[in-house]
Each structure stands twice: as structure tokens, then as C-alpha cells.
Amino acid sequence: MHQAPVSRTFPRSSEKTRRIRTLAVAIVGSLYAALPVAALETPDYGDIAPILARHCASCHQPGDIAPMTLGSYEEVRPWARAIARKVAAREMPPWFADPEVGSFRNDARLEPSEIDRLVEWARAGAPRGEGPDSASVTVPPAPPDDRWRLGTPDLVVEMPEAFPVPAEGVVDYVYVRLPSGLAEPRWIRAIEVQPGAREVVHHIDVLACSAGCPEDEDFAALEPGELSFLPGSPITERPRPRTDAGIDGDDIEFLTSFLPGGVPQELPDGHARLLPAGADLVLNLHYTPSGTAVHDRSRVGLWFADAAPRQRVVSMFLDNFSIWIPAGEASHRVTTRATLAQEARLLALTPHMHSRGRSAEVYLEPAEASAPRALLKVPRYDFNWQITYELAEPLALQAGDTIRYELSWDNSEQNPHNPDPSRDVPWGRQTSDEMASVFVTLAVPPEVEPSELFE
């Protein structure tokens, strides 16, 4: 489960990594002459540094998950051609939404003029220019472990012990249930997730569940404060196919995620999320070993509003628990629907599958007889980047409107990320299984309960 995002990472210090980087630079150099570029005055590093600061340096900094640092001219120069190739192919920065569908306020794409300048700079030999020798990208560094970007939180909830992340291998999702200790409900206006070891944290999802997580057998089974691996899927036989979404968001609600390069979640004025009295926070942690064994002890900071908001923000977890992806199938497609019972405003969409995920499309089917409207298309889904697509403007939804989403998976041998193409794959929480999910973030009047939002 899971606002900008992590790419597949390589062990930071291994000989294999160095060979891969050398080969990548050689390949890029051999193809480089084919790069298109507009006729421009040759830029220097002073022109390039602000582009890197805006779009790259939040992940490419010391101690973060990106494989190299882009903080100074000396650090950027050896990667100039590789950067040009990646941005020209629109592989970086990561953004997978079809540009012909929807408009999103967190669109991470470079402007064509920015791509042209990076390409021309690299083609010209990456000149430094006349700036000072110490010229560097000006970007806020990752805060140290004892500093929060939004100041001192009203409440900090922390893992009770550090989790040992090995140097290599695959680490199953880790879950920990943390009591909030709140004696009364509070409205959350901002949330910040602070990983203890950024270099290995792929993402952290933060969920809130009412005291004891009564409606979820898996989460209720978690002992408060203990680090746990939830079991693989209990589904062993093909379920009856369904097109109606299973919906979480009443006793369990998605709050936010940490993703490399992401920023704290600050809700607009007059908007807040509700944290019930006695609620527990459930952290879902995904680690990617970096070549060095480390320990991670992540934490969450919450800032509370002084009064009830004009609009309550809720994230509903739509899922299709009946999926069954046949072994070897290269394009298995499932359609799922959820119909609104109340008016709401749509703020954001987050498709979610695991490593076999191939594509995602989300549509609005209005209650009136007008044609469906495409809200989001992700033709090349990548599990390594769990992106929330934030609408540029909230979209008014009416009772009776249906959200339809269509997901596809590649369970064939041709999928290099497929852990086992010989296996029929059911729904499950671990990455060896699959999910068919879309997080739908809505704004509603504060008196509306999430359980009342969908039919």
C-alpha cells in the first residue's frame, strides 16, 4: 500500500555497482550523438544548477536512496551525459501519468526548455562557466534525525526498536502498530514521516485504525509496539470474480506516505484529517538493502489543528480482493467500480499494485448519462515509484457517480521484476502476492463518516 516517490537501487559500494555504472556511461556515450536538442546558447553550470535543485537533488543527496549525489559541479560533471539521456527519454524525474489525461499540481516532469538546456550542456562538455569554484546546487538537505521540517510536532510516534536491514536480499514488508495515546479525537493539519535510515527506505505508509483495529484481522493481530511480518495471502483457491470494490476507510484509514524526495503533507487551510481517540498508527515499511547492513528506526510527527475544519480529508482504500492472475499471463486486466453515496470533492488518486503491475487507468462514470471521463492513465506502472497524483483543481463528485478503475499485470517470464511467473497470484499484502488498489483522497464535510461515502 501507499506523494512524489523510489527507483530500483543498486548496492552503493559493490564492485558490481561500479561495473554497471561504467557500462552505463559507455552505452550513453555511444548513443549520445543521436539526442535531439533545440538551437540554444550553450548553458553553463550556473544555468543547470537550479534545474537540478528543483527536480533532482531532493533524492540525489548524501545519505538518501539515490545511487549518486548531485550536490556540486564536481559531483554532477561525471554524470552529465547520463543525466541528459535520462531526461531526454523522460525516465527522470519519475512521472508516469499520460500527459494527455488530467492535470496534476505535483507534476514532476521537466519543461521541454529544461530538457534542452541539460542536453546542450552535456553535449558541450558540461562547462562550469565563470561561477565560483565551490558552485553547488542550493537545495535544502535532508534534516538530521533530531530536526523536523515543520518545527516541533504536537505528537511524535516512533518505532519502539530499530529494525535490522540486511546488506543484501529481499526484505518482506514490515508492519508495526503504535498506540497514539490520545484520550480525545484530534484533527491533523500536517504529517511528516522521518525515516531513520533514508538510504534503505523505499517507502513508509502510515495508516490510522480505531482502537484495536477491530475490523482488520491482520492488523488486530499485531501486538502493539512489536515489529511483524504479516503472512502471505491466505487465498489458495481462485475466488469468484467481482467488479465491486472492497472499501477500507472507516476503521482503517490511509494517512500519508514517505517516499524519497517527498515532502511533509500540509493540508490546505480549512482542511484536516481526523485521528480518533485511542487510535493506533500502523506503519507499513518497505526496505531496499543498499549493500551495507543498517538499522532503521523511523517515526511520524503530527501537527494538530486548533479547531474543527471546514472540510474533512479522507483517503479511501478501494481494492478488488477477488483478483487471480494466471501463471505466465502477460496482460491480465481487471475492472473494478465503486459508487458514491454522498457528494465529495476528489483531491488525489494513488494506484497501487506490486511488482507485476503493468498499467492503471481511472475513470469517472457520472450518475447522469454523460460519457465516462478519464481522470488518470498510467500506461507504464512502476512499483518502485508509489506516486500520488494530486489534481490541479478539486473535482466535484455527486451521489451516484461511479469511480471505475482498470488495472493490468504482467505475470510472464518477460517481466524482469516478476518473482515467480509459474505461480497463479492472488490478492495479498506482501510483494510476492498482488493488490488491485486505488487510494481515493476526498474532501467532505467534517460530520460525514467515511463509512457513509460509498454504496
Quick tags:
455 residues, alpha+beta, Jelly Rolls, 2 domains, ten-stranded mixed beta sheet, 30% strand, globular, disordered N terminus
Beta-strand content: 25-35%
Care to count the β-strands? 23
Are there runs of 5+ residues with pLDDT below 50, and where? 1-40
What global shape is seen? globular
Largest sheet: 10 strands, mixed
The CATH topology of the largest domain is Jelly Rolls
- Overall mean pLDDT stands at 83
**Count of helical regions:** 6
Q: Could you tell me how far the N terminus lies from the C terminus, measured between alpha carbons in angstroms?
A: 23 Å
Classified by CATH, the class of the largest domain is Mainly Beta
- Strand and helix order: HHHHHEEEEEHEEEEEEEEEEEEEEEEEE
Q: Compute the CA-based radius of gyration.
A: 23 Å
Q: Which architecture of the largest domain would the CATH scheme give at its second level?
A: Sandwich
